[in-house]
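Reopening this ticket.

The earlier resolution said the output was attached, but the attachment link was broken on my side. Pasting everything inline this time so it's all in one place.
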Amino acid sequence: MSKLKYKIIPEGMLHSIYIPITAVFIDYADVKACNLTMYEACEKIAATIPGPAGLNMFDMTATTTNSNGIMLEGAMVCMAASDYGKINKDFGYMEMVEIPYSEELIKEEPHLKQWKKSFPDRKLYMGPDPNKKVIPIHNATLTGRAGNNNSGTEMMHYINMEELLLPISGQVEIMKDGKLEVGGTGWTISVGIGMVVGEEYGRIVPRRQWKCGKTAHNSGEYAKFLKSHIPIIAADKRAHAASIIRALQTGVIPGRDIGASPSVLAVAKHMKIQPDIDNIQDKALEELASVGCTMEWIKEDVEELTPEEIIERAHEIIPGIDNPKRYNVSDIVQVKYVDV
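Inline output:
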């Protein structure tokens, strides 16, 4: 009998934050080694969890984007929501769509210029395919009390309405046994995740609804409050800085090709890369200014740093997360096995 490995953060208190539903992270390589389909693997793991849970599976040989259009070392390939050990067959499971490369795609989604430069041999997976399945708003899977929303990056308990943000970059760090930051989402990240790029199969916002330079939140100063109260498990800022640097080194421009979030702008400033201010709409600039990223801040002259120096000073350079605590993944995530 084989044993399927998975990683888990149980429901309940985790250091200073509350985990509203159990969060599970699965490596697709382990699933294939056990000769299971993705759905079968999710079912078998869900059967071991009596309460509400969100389950996310990753192909660490692939790539995807975060909400700002930064490409990452790994991609989610399916997500599920379970409760009482079951997955709702209609609404509880979805697979992510693989996107084929084409020059036309790069023209329509210019942030993907990173793909052939940074990850030339990797498959690209994005959000679920709405042409294959009717998808609830926010790309969500639902079963009982569990909601696994925004393509597996926001988990919610639908009875007590408690939430947890799990940015995709943090989940990649979990899969890599890297380092994490835990705390409150706060104003800066609440604004930053709204600085999206246009993607036909976007993990957060599909159908290219907002081109780069616009804000998906479109709510002025209130944008900083939208997610600020929610606990967050994010990538350590050094890992986040490394991903942003890698993207910027491919020639993408903040505000034109990738989202002009506070973290992207902060790193770009120290690389002496100017954002396309003329392409950033006034409503997006208003939201940025509400968290201190004013036009004066964007244009101020700062010390030019090497990529290594930016990564070393990332906790000083990149804003965001209230009362952050830093941990190794092993301090937060348990490793378990289920017989298959």
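Reporter confirms the inline version is readable. The mean pLDDT is 97. The chain has twelve helices and 17 strands.
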